[in-house]
Design a protein that fits this description.
The protein has 394 residues and is of the alpha/beta class. The protein starts with 6 loop residues before the first strand and ends with a strand. Helix content is 39%, strand content 20%. The longest helix has 23 residues, at 66-88. A hairpin with a 7-residue loop joins strand 2 and strand 3 (39-47). The chain has helices at residues 50-58, 66-88, 122-129, 139-143, 153-160, 192-199, 212-222, 231-235, 240-247, 250-253, 267-274, 282-304, 321-334, 356-369, 377-380; strands at residues 7-15, 22-31, 39-47, 97-102, 105-110, 115-119, 133-135, 167-172, 175-181, 203-209, 310-314, 342-345, 390-392. The model is unreliable at 1-7 and 185-198 (pLDDT under 50).
Length: 394
Amino acid sequence: MNTETAIDTLYIGLMSGTSLDGVDGVLAAFPSQGGRAITTLATAYMPFDLTLRDALMALQASGPDEIHREALAAAQLAKHYAACVAQLRPNSKGAHIAAIGVHGQTIRHRPELGYTRQTNHPALLAELSGIDVITDFRSRDVAAGGQGAPLVPAFHQAIFGTPEQTRVVVNIGGIGNISILPASDEAGSEHGAGQQAQQAHTGGFDTGPGNALMDAWCARHLNQPYDDNGAWAASGAIRQDLLNALSDEAFFKQAAPKSTGRDLFHMQWLEQKLAPFGAVPAADVQATLTALTAGSIAQAITDYAADAAEVYVCGGGAYNGYLMQLLTQALAAMSTSTKPPGVQSTAALGVAPNQVEALAFAWLAQRFTQRLPGNVPAVTGAAGLRVLGALYPA
């Protein structure tokens, strides 16, 4: 990223995603004149301890005394956020930090019923950090009739869009999603009619499971939180009959805008799909789950962004070499072009894959403070552009 533009304001972005592994944080400097020259000054990672991870996982489904359990988990989560902020703060060298943009931890996502729930205790985070906290970014979009997700396409367009070619940015966290960034002279514009016009053409939606099912299967059979570089999956065989059964889910055929989460793609869903197949070797299931993630993403790109010249991957999935290989192969197999899109991580664009989402919430916090919209109605289905977030002053 450009480090020569004059720095005006600092923001912290925090993200704890569907994978439930921990908190990624960034300290970012936003230039005074807008544009895409955001400078990442520092990054931090605060892993969840097993107790908090289990508490948050349990809140993904209804259970006894869940209001009480959520309140306790939210307070612990805020303390994790505050610890991450404490790691980042010295890198500000005493400069004022305008706000913390924090997503919160999604425990329910039911936009078709008019709500989405990201547990958090932002008042406690503001108290512990002494910094304004901006959070609850999804609710305003849902209130306007949208899915409240994905929220990152506007950010992706602002910093990754280019007038030369159509690009697709793929985020593979617990759930996969794509941002379609059409070539345009307006790409990268931060303000005014130009940026709003470009947003009208920016696309994106959730594609289905990302790492969530792979991680859960790996935890069950290897007692490991994830399949390092996809090595276990690569040792197995992709079962086409099982892949066909997994792909036979209404969500994959649903037209965009659409979003999903653990409300649909959870272990019980997988167990139901596996039941007719009897004893399938665990490594074969892992290989097939990896193929499901790669294939559903490739199909979405083929259906909605066939002219994409490049595909850039962020999120934890970018570090899974076998998944990246399958995605490249699936795109090549589906492409009608003589030159299928190349696949590489967002590191090629100057942003490490594990920093993109946290940086997006720093960007959304800045948008909120400037009272600028952060959603893309064509992506979420909202009635129009909306300023996203809620402020908890320090």
